[in-house]
Design goal:
103 residues; mainly alpha; membrane; cell membrane; transmembrane helix; MetI-like_sf; transport
Amino acid sequence: MRLPLKSSLVLYALLLGSAVVFLFPLIWMVARSFMGLDDLYKVPPVVFPTQFTAEAYSEIWTIKPFLSYIGNTGIVVFFSVVGGTLSAAFLRFRIRPVAVSLS
């Protein structure tokens, strides 16, 4: 079933408008990450930086243990995925998990 031309134009306009609304925070975040301090504190705020700088990305590796943070996140994600998969398997096959005591 095809929509009439007027209806499809309205639909595409609504889709485009909602895409802009949903993508604006992502664009704002990425643009702010490339701004210098002078652009960050301008009033009224600017969306795009006047001078691009990648200084913040180089500071990530020297100021904080960023690689350690990524490793910790990977461990949490791994165990969450494994735990979710095992719990789904227990539910699917009606396996009763054995209680494990650490004492």
